[in-house]
User: What shape does this take?
Amino acid sequence: MTHARIELDPAATVGRVSPRLFGTFVEHMGRCVYDGIHAPEHPSADADGFRTDVADLVRELGATVVRYPGGNFVSGFEWEDSVGPRDERPVRLDAAWHSVETNQVGLHEFASWAQRVGLELMMAVNLGTRGPRDAARLLEYCNFPAGTALSDERRANGAEDPFGIRLWCLGNEMDGDWQIGHKTAHEYGRIAAETARLMRFVDPGIELVVAGSSSAGQPTFGSWEREVVRQTAGLVEHISLHAYYEELDGDLDSFLASGVGLDRYIEEVAGILAEEEAALGLERPLGISVDEWNVWYQTRFNEQDKEPLLTGEWAYAPAIIEDEYAVADAVVVGSLLNSLLRHADRVTMANQAQLVNVIAPIRTEPDAAAWRQTIFWPFAITAARARGEALRIAVDAPLVSTAAYGDVPSVDVAGTVDGDRVELFLVNRDHRAPVEVTLGGAGQGFALAGEALVLTVPEGRDRFATNTRDEQPVRPTALPVREVAGEVLATLPALSWAAVSLTVR
Ligand code: AHR
Assistant: This one.
């Protein structure tokens, strides 16, 4: 057993926690939409073919915003294919994922589903094969009330009221050579700026996200952000970053420190933004939209699964990147959420990628009830509890040596304060030993409020335990805590994530 002290000061705040930090992502990819959220043959399907068991889990997950319809898919997507009578919609090849797209779930069906499950729609426009004109036409179709050809087409297609979509992404991962219509920073900056300008003419009330880097490992990372920010200055509100983490070569210590990797990535982007904003005299700081993040065993996909996918049959809703998550993956997801909270002053939005089946917290099979993957839990509990202002928290904990990030504290913590309520999210990155944490603060008393929860390796299992269609052993259980002289003590098991609610006395 080791010991750590968490020093709390409810007045030491970083910034307001936006509900948009708990966004999600639905791409027309694999079995996320078809055979995921939408499966007319499933016994739980509603009149529109959407699975109600999935919808119930989406509501329980507590996500707030949904990015749609891609991802790589959007860079070849023609939105007009996805509206109008379903039996007249074209079947197309989706070159991004070597799949067949039937367009049976389109803009109207998805917007209506998102509203029913309580998700704000965040649309991405195609800047791969298309440009400003088509993006502006889509925006007019969605948001203009009536009386123009495009808005009247929407009404004729069943949506009398505009969709009122406020959040728009200017393309997806245009820095990546895997992207349809991949561009240099200069090329992308130009088209993003012109698209933004035209979209703003059509609807000045929108918020725009310009695409930053698709990972911190991109050769253009840094120079891409500078060029894109310069070209779109004053035209966009947010810049994206995408971040995926995985356990490589059995190096669990480094994997468990992935939150440190995200901290550094966000801080590097924030540093670049601060310099560029000062140089350009920008009055309003840009928000960072971490609009794809998660654990994804991407190396496995790239080395083993990608080539057969791209050379095989063109399939409808093929099973792509359906990662099955174990305990450590859930603990890392908890840490990544902590990193987002810690940067609430700059991170204005974030979307876990994706929602169903494709690297997702929710899994389905055609002949079973939907189930929660391990990573469902830290997301759902953090989204439900994090409120008010994010806290700056001092941690005194033993160090863990990692090959990827050097020495890092064994305990990772983030928290929020709302009135006298403090919510803490704790991770024991040490997978060898439990740690006793003392939660206290100079001159203040703290008491437990509500149930403390912990997610760790279930009794009789090992760290590779997963949740499957047949059994879901990885779930939160009650975490015993003690109150001693205005402080709260808890023992976090080795390799665990926990949530503790406190009241300030
Ligand atoms: O989320 C899966 C894929 O990851 C997305 O389509 C793409 O944007 C990213 O590379």
User: Anything to note?
Assistant: The first strand starts at residue 2 and ends at 7.
